[in-house]
Inverse folding.
């Protein structure tokens, strides 16, 4: 059974600092890894999708890397802003999508 | 293009009552999914439908039934609600099972008293 872990569970940083969010998974036979953002009381918004054959994906200030062999992904958010405050979830697809519990980020103005 | 829509947004049930959560997508996706989200546990898959006419159990199917009414719609039914089913329920869809991006609805917040 795929286990997905996100550490830390919560993170608070001052505005302008770079954010580093970690995700690890136990079964490396994945199709892809997806990073989502969830605002309080809202649904999930897809941020980045990395296929198993890729090493990284970038979108604006966001960059996600994937090391399938070690079962790790990292989401980098450059020059954080208060609007980046949210919970970030990673999910990996094997036969199904398996989610981590998320990292709740607070960016202090 | 509304994406994935869910109704209702909020619901309160008494133990033993039944209800159906509705989900629809307008992206011509083949696969649809129902998840529940509980504090500190991430999202867990309840049921999924890889294509129209098929449904399969996920990680936590007990107490739920589903119907893939057509390609657009996938409903989740609670026959006899229990307090343990208090959760936020999300529907999602993707073009096909496997390597494709999943798109999520806004969720239904269900409380069972």
């Amino acid at each position: 059974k795929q286990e997905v872990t996100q550490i830390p569970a919560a993170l608070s940083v001052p505005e302008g600092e770079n954010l580093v969010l970690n995700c690890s998974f136990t079964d490396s036979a994945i199709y892809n890894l997806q990073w989502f953002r969830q605002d309080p009381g809202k649904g999930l918004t897809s941020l980045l999708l990395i296929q198993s054959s890729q090493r990284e994906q970038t979108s604006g200030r966001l960059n996600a890397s994937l090391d399938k062999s070690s079962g790790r992904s990292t989401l980098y958010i450059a020059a954080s802003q208060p609007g980046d405050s949210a919970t970030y979830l990673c999910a990996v697809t094997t036969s199904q999508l398996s989610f981590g519990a998320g990292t709740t980020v607070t960016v202090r103005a | 293009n509304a994406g994935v829509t869910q109704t209702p947004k909020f619901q309160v049930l008494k133990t033993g009552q039944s209800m159906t959560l509705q989900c629809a997508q307008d992206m011509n996706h083949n696969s649809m999914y129902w998840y529940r989200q509980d504090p500190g546990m991430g999202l867990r898959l309840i049921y999924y439908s890889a294509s129209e006419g098929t449904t399969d159990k996920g990680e936590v199917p007990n107490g739920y039934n589903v119907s893939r009414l057509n390609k657009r719609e996938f409903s989740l039914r609670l026959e006899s609600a229990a307090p343990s089913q208090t959760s936020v329920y999300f529907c999602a869809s993707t073009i096909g099972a496997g390597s494709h991006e999943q798109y999520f609805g806004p969720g239904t917040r269900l409380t069972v008293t």
Observations:
- The longest strand of chain A covers residues 44-51.
- Chain A has a mean pLDDT of 94.
- The interface with chain B takes residues 4, 31-32, 34, 36, 41-46, 49, 51-52, 89, 91, 93, 96-97, 99-102 of chain A (CB under 8 Å).
- The radius of gyration of chain A is 13 Å.
